[in-house]
C-alpha cells in the first residue's frame, strides 16, 4: 500500500509504503535528509526524459548550466518551502553545481539561462516510485524536520541537528512500540548531515538502559550514508566538512554563528557521535555502506575543487567493511534518481536489497531437503559423554573477567583483536565451566533483543574433533545460507552411507573447506562457546584452537574456548587472546571462603588466606575443603585441629580426592569400589533405581576371586534364575536401603560427596541420573588412581593388577550382572508364547504383532519402564561384552553361542524381543549408529564385530528351529549329527584369501593352514594372523608374521603355536584366524 505524495508530512515520520495482504514487513527502511532538506524534495528528481549521456568531461561541463534561482522573497521562510533560497552571489563557489550528469539523461539537464524556468518537468520521487518495487517486503518511511530562515539567515533559539535526532528517536520508538514492532530490523538511509542525525540517534539509544528507546539500537540492521561527514582531512576538521555540506543543503552563509550552531559544526557531540558510532559498529556489527559524491575533473576556481574534494574525502570512514562507492553527482543531487536504470540508484538499491535479504534469511525456515541434510549431519546424544548439571555462580564471582582489557577488546571487537578467539585456560576445577555459563547467560540477556545467535558446544557433544565440528556445523547450518548450499551439494553426492556424513568427511569439510572460506551470516553478532574436556589430548587442543582461530579470521564470529592449562600451546597460539583463569580468580576464591567458612576465632582471616593460597586457583578444591572444615567445626573441632587438617590436606585436586577416600574403612572402601565401578564404567548416566539394582547384583570381592578361578569365562557363570524379591534379599553388602531416598543417602556417604543426582525437578528421585560432581572425578578414577586407592588393602584384588586389567574385570562383572538380570524368573513369559504367564511376569509380547509396529514398541517400552535396570541391561549388553580387551579382539564365539542358546534360547529370545528384532544386521546397525557408546567397539579395527555377527546369525537361525548346541556335534532342526572330518580339523589344508576369517568348532587336531604370500605394487607383505585354538580346557595362541615358508606359503601348524596362560585363553572352544595386512 502506497501513500500519496501530497499526504506526506513535512515534519515527522510518514509511512510511504507497506506490504499488502497483511504480510509482516521484513525491515523498516527510514530515509533521513540533511539540514535544510525536505522529506520529499530532498529525494525528488526533475526529469526531462533526455537520452543518456557520457560522464562529464570538460566539454560537457560547459553545456550543463546552472538553474536560475528564483527572486528572493522576504519574510519568515521554512527551508523546505518553495522556492528554495540560494546563496548570495558572493558565495557562488559553494553552489557551483547542483547536478552533474554522471549517470543518465533521466536526470534534469539544466536549461540555458535565456530559457528561464519555462521547462516542462516530470517529477520522480524514487522512494515512492522505485523503491517499493525493489523491496516489496519492506516498509518504507521518511522523516522530515525544518529549519526556520528569515532573509537568508536562520532564526536563533530553534533546535539544532542534535535536538532533531532526539525527536526522531522518540517518535520512531513510540511508533514501533505502539504497533508492537519493537524487534523489527531498521535500515537507515541518510543523506548529507542526516548522517549526523542517525549517529546521534544511535548514541542516544545506547545511553538508555532498556525500553523502547534502547531497542532502536538493538534493532538497527544497517546504516547507508549518502555523502555524510565521517572524519577530518589533512586540511580541515570534521566540523568544516559538516558546515560545507550544510551550506549546500541549507543555502545560507556557513560562517554565520547561528548556522554553525544549528548544524553542530563546532559541537563536542559531533566528535562524540563519530567515536560512538565506530564503537557501536564494531560492537553490534550492523552493516554500514557509504556513498561519496563525485569529484569533477575541471572547476573554475581552486577553492571549489578543494571544498568538493574535502567533502569527498570526509564522506567515508576508511574501513574496508563499508565498501565505499561513488555516485556520479555532486552533493545536493547525489540522492536524486530519475530512473531505475540510473547506476546510482542501482548501487543504492543493491545495498538496500542486500540488507533486506539478510533479514529475510534470518527468518528462513528449513526445507524438507535441508532437514534431511541436517539429520545426516547431526549425531544422537553421545551416550558415553557425561555432563554435570549447570553449576551455580556464587554472588560476586566471575565479575573480574568483564573488567579485563583483553576481554573488552575481544567483546567490543576493537583494533586487531576483533578477529581473534578468546581462550580461557586453567587448571581442572578452577571454575571455567561456571565462568563460561555465566558469560553465556550475560550475553543472552544483553544480546538476545538484538537478535544475536548463541552457539554452545560442550563435552557432551563428543570429545573428538569430528564430534565438535558436527556440533558447530549443525548449529551454524541455520544461520549460514552458503553452508546450507555446500552441505546440500555434499549430501546429494554419492557416498558410502547416503543417510549420514562419516567422521572423515566432516573433518575434511570443516578443516579444509569451511574455515578457509569467507563466512557471512545474517546475524549481526554470533557468539560461539566451546568447552573442551580437561583430559583432552594437547595435540587435539592445538588442532582445534588453530582451526577455530582461522574461522574467526574469516568471519564475524566471536569465539570463546575453555580448555585445561597448556603453557606450551599458549606460546604458539598467535590467533588467540589467552586468559589463564587460575591466575585471575584468587579474589573470587577468597570471597567465597570468607562468606562460607563458619569459623569464629580471631585468626579467622589467616585461615581464609591459607585456604586461598593453598587452592592454587582451583575453586573446586576450596569449595570441598570449606565443606570439610565446616563439618568438622560443627562437630566441635577447634582452631588447632582445623589448622592441622589444612596442613595435612594435599594441595592438588586428585590428591584431595585420594585423601578423602582414605578416610573410609575397609568395608566402606569395598562398597565404594562397587559403586564407582558402575558409575564410571557405565555406558550412560544411570538412573538411581537402575544403579540400586546393579549394585545389589554385584560383589566386587567375589568378582575378582571368580576371575582368578575362571578367567573371562566368569561372565557366563550366571547361576540359576532368581526374582526381584530375591534381589532385595541379597546381602552381598551392607546396603539395607529399600527406598530411593535411603539409597541416595547411602550413595552420598559411600562416595564421600563425589557423586550426586542430576538436578531434574520434573523427575522423582528414583528416576534421576547419577553423576560425578565434576569431570575431574571421572578423570581421577579412569586414570586408575581412584580405583587403586579403593583397592588398597583388599586381599581379593591382586596388588599388581594393571589399570587395563582392572577395567576389564569390572566390565566382566557388569556384563554378568546384566545377564543375571535378563535370566530372572520375572521374565519367563518373554519369548515363550506357548507357556502360561507367571504371576510375577510382565505381560508377554504378542508374537503376532510385527516388532516394528507401534503397538510392539509400546509394549516393549511398557515392560522396560516397569522394571528398573531392564532397559539398561538390554540396550548396553554388547557395550560391556566388547569393552574388555580380550573380548574386543577375540570374542569367545562358542561360549557366547552356548550361553544364549541354553534353556531353549531363553536369553536370546528375551533380549531380541526387548530389542525389537532378532536380525543380526539390524541389531548391529542399531549399535553402530553414530553416537552410540558401542559404535567404536564395533569398528573393523577390532575383530569382534565379524565374530559377533556370525554368532548372532547362527542364533537367529537355530532359534527358529528350536535346536540346541553341543560341544561334540551340531544340531540342526532338533536332530544331532556328528561333525565331519573337515569340521574336526583333520582334512587337507585350508588356503585363506586376504580379508577372510576361519572359525572352526570342535577340539580336534589342527591341520596346516597355508597363508599365501600377498604382494603389493611396490613391496611384498605378509598376512598377520592371530590364532586361537581350544583343546579341552587348555588354550593356545600364536602371532605369526613371517614364519618358515613351505612351497612359497606361510605354514601354520601345531608346532608353531606357543601355549599362553590359561588365564587369558582358557576354555575357548573355537579356532579363529583374524587376517590383516602387516605394512
Automatic annotation (TrEMBL):
It holds the Pfam family NPHP3_N. Keywords: Repeat. Coiled coil: none annotated. Residues 396-561 form the Nephrocystin 3-like N-terminal domain. It comes from the Eukaryota. InterPro entries: AB_hydrolase_fold (IPR029058), NPHP3-like_N (IPR056884), P-loop_NTPase (IPR027417). SUPFAM superfamilies: alpha/beta-Hydrolases, P-loop containing nucleoside triphosphate hydrolases. PANTHER family: AMELOGENIN, GPI INOSITOL-DEACYLASE. This is Nephrocystin 3-like N-terminal domain-containing protein.
Amino acid at each position: 500500500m502506497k501513500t500519496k505524495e501530497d499526504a506526506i508530512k513535512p515534519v515527522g515520520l510518514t509511512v510511504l509504503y507497506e506490504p499488502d495482504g497483511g504480510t509482516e514487513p521484513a525491515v523498516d527502511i527510514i530515509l533521513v535528509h540533511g539540514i535544510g532538506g525536505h522529506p520529499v524534495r530532498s529525494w525528488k528528481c526533475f526529469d526531462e526524459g533526455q537520452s543518456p549521456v557520457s560522464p562529464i568531461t570538460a566539454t560537457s561541463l560547459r553545456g550543463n548550466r546552472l538553474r536560475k534561482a528564483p527572486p528572493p522573497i522576504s519574510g519568515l521562510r521554512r527551508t523546505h518551502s518553495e522556492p528554495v533560497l540560494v546563496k548570495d552571489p558572493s558565495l557562488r563557489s559553494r553552489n557551483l553545481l547542483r547536478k552533474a550528469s554522471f549517470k543518465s539523461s533521466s536526470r534534469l539537464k539544466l536549461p540555458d539561462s535565456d530559457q528561464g524556468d519555462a521547462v516542462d518537468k516530470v517529477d520522480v520521487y524514487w522512494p515512492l516510485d522505485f523503491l517499493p518495487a525493489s523491496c516489496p517486503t519492506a516498509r518504507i518511511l521518511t522523516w522530515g524536520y525544518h529549519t526556520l530562515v528569515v532573509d537568508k539567515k536562520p532564526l536563533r533559539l530553534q533546535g539544532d541537528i542534535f535536538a532533531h535526532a532526539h525527536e526522531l528517536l522518540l517518535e520512531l520508538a513510540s511508533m514501533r512500540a505502539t504497533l508492537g514492532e519493537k524487534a523489527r530490523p531498521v535500515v537507515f538511509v541518510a543523506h548529507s548531515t542526516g548522517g549526523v542525525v542517525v549517529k546521534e540517534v544511535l548514541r542516544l539509544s545506547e545511553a538508555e538502559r532498556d525500553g523502547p528507546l534502547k531497542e532502536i539500537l538493538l534493532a538497527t540492521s544497517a546504516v547507508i550514508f549518502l555523502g555524510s561527514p565521517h572524519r577530518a582531512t589533512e586540511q580541515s576538521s570534521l566540523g568544516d566538512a559538516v558546515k560545507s555540506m550544510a551550506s549546500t543543503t541549507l543555502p545560507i552563509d556557513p560562517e554565520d554563528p547561528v548556522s554553525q550552531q544549528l548544524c553542530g559544526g563546532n559541537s563536542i557531540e559531533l566528535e562524540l557521535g563519530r567515536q560512538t558510532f565506530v564503537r557501536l559498529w564494531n560492537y553490534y556489527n550492523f552493516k554500514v555502506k557509504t556513498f561519496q559524491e563525485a569529484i569533477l575533473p575541471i572547476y573554475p576556481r581552486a577553492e571549489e575543487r578543494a571544498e568538493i574534494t574535502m567533502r569527498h574525502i570526509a564522506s567515508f570512514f576508511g574501513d574496508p567493511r563499508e565498501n565505499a562507492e561513488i555516485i556520479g553527482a555532486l552533493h545536493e543531487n547525489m540522492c536524486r534518481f530519475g530512473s531505475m536504470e540510473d547506476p546510482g540508484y542501482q548501487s543504492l538499491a543493491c545495498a538496500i536489497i542486500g540488507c533486506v535479504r539478510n533479514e529475510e534469511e534470518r527468518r528462513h525456515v528449513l526445507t524438507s531437503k535441508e532437514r534431511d541434510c541436517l539429520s545426516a549431519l547431526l549425531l544422537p546424544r553421545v551416550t558415553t559423554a557425561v555432563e554435570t548439571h549447570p553449576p551455580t555462580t556464587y554472588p560476586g564471582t566471575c565479575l573480574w573477567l568483564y573488567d579485563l582489557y583483553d576481554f573488552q577488546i575481544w567483546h567490543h571487537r576493537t583494533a586487531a583483536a576483533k578477529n581473534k578467539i578468546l581462550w580461557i585456560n586453567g587448571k581442572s576445577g578452577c571454575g571455567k565451566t561456571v565462568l563460561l555459563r555465566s558469560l553465556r547467560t550475560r550475553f543472552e540477556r544483553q544480546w538476545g533483543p538484538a537478535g544475536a545467535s548463541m552457539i554452545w558446544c560442550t563435552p557432551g557433544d563428543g570429545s573428538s574433533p569430528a564430534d565438535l565440528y558436527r556440533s558447530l556445523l549443525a548449529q551454524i547450518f541455520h544461520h549460514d545460507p552458503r553452508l546450507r548450499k555446500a552441505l546440500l551439494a555434499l549430501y546429494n553426492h554419492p557416498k558410502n552411507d547416503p543417510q549420514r556424513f562419516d567422521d572423515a568427511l566432516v573433518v575434511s569439510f570443516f578443516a579444509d573447506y569451511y574455515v578457509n572460506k569467507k563466512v557471512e551470516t545474517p546475524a549481526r553478532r554470533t557468539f560461539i562457546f566451546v568447552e573442551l574436556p580437561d583430559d583432552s589430548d594437547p595435540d587435539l587442543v592445538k588442532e582445534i584452537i588453530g582451526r577455530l582461530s582461522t574461522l574467526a579470521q574469516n568471519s564475524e564470529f566471536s569465539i570463546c574456548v575453555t580448555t585445561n592449562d597448556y603453557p606450551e600451546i599458549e606460546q604458539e597460539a598467535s590467533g588467540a587472546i589467552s586468559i589463564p583463569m587460575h591466575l585471575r580468580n584468587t579474589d573470587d576464591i577468597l570471597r567465597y571462603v570468607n562468606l562460607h567458612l563458619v569459623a569464629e576465632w580471631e585468626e579467622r582471616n589467616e585461615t581464609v588466606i591459607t585456604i586461598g593460597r593453598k587452592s592454587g586457583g582451583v575453586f573446586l578444591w576450596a569449595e570441598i575443603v570449606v565443606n570439610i572444615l565446616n563439618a568438622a567445626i560443627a562437630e566441635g573441632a577447634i582452631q588447632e585441629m582445623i589448622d592441622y587438617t589444612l596442613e595435612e590436606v594435599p594441595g592438588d585436586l586428585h590428591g584431595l580426592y585420594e585423601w578423602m577416600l582414605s578416610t573410609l574403612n575397609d568395608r566402606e572402601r569395598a562398597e565404594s569400589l562397587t559403586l564407582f565401578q558402575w558409575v564410571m564404567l557405565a555406558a550412560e548416566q544411570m538412573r538411581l533405581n537402575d544403579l540400586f539394582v546393579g549394585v545389589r547384583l554385584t560383589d566386587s570381592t567375589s568378582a575378582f576371586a571368580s576371575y582368578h578361578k575362571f578367567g573371562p569365562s566368569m561372565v557366563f557363570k550366571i547361576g540359576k534364575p532368581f526374582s526381584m524379591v530375591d534381589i532385595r534379599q541379597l546381602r552381598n553388602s551392607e546396603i539395607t536401603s529399600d527406598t530411593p531416598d535411603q539409597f541416595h543417602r547411602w550413595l552420598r556417604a559411600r562416595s564421600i560427596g563425589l557423586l550426586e543426582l542430576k538436578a531434574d525437578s520434573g523427575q522423582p528421585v528414583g528416576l534421576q541420573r547419577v553423576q560425578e560432581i565434576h569431570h575431574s572425578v571421572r578423570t581421577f578414577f579412569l586414570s586408575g588412581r581412584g580405583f587403586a586407592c579403593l583397592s588398597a588393602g583388599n586381599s581379593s584384588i591382586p596388588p599388581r593388577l594393571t589399570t587395563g586389567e582392572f577395567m576389564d574385570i569390572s566390565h566382566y562383572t557388569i556384563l554378568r550382572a546384566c545377564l543375571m538380570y535378563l535370566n530372572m524368573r520375572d521374565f519367563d513369559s518373554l519369548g515363550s508364547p506357548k507357556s502360561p504367564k507367571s504371576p510375577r511376569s510382565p505381560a508377554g509380547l504378542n508374537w503376532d504383532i510385527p516388532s516394528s509396529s507401534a503397538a510392539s514398541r509400546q509394549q516393549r517400552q511398557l515392560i522396560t519402564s516397569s522394571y528398573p535396570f531392564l532397559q539398561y541391561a538390554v540396550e548396553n549388553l554388547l557395550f560391556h561384552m566388547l569393552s574388555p580387551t580380550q573380548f574386543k579382539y577375540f570374542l569367545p564365539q562358542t561360549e557366547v553361542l552356548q550361553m544364549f542358546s541354553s534353556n531353549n534360547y531363553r536369553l536370546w529370545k528375551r533380549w531380541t524381543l526387548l530389542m525389537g528384532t532378532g536380525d543380526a544386521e539390524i541389531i548391529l546397525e542399531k549399535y553402530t549408529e553414530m553416537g552410540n557408546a558401542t559404535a567404536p567397539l564395533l569398528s573393523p579395527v577390532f575383530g569382534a564385530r565379524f565374530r559377533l555377527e556370525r554368532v548372532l546369525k547362527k542364533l537367529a537361525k537355530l532359534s527358529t528351529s528350536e535346536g540346541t548346541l553341543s560341544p561334540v556335534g551340531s544340531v540342526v532342526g532338533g536332530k544331532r549329527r556328528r561333525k565331519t572330518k573337515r569340521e574336526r580339523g583333520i582334512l587337507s589344508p585350508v588356503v585363506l584369501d586376504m580379508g577372510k576369517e576361519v572359525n572352526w568348532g570342535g577340539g580336534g587336531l589342527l591341520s596346516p593352514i597355508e597363508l599365501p604370500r600377498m604382494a603389493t605394487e611396490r613391496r611384498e607383505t605378509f598376512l598377520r594372523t592371530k590364532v586361537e585354538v581350544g583343546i579341552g580346557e587348555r588354550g593356545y595362541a600364536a602371532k605369526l608374521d613371517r614364519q618358515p615358508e613351505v612351497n612359497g606359503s606361510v605354514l601354520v601348524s601345531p608346532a608353531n603355536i606357543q601355549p599362553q596362560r590359561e588365564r587369558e585363553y582358557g576354555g575357548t572352544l573355537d579356532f579363529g584366524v583374524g587376517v590383516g595386512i602387516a605394512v
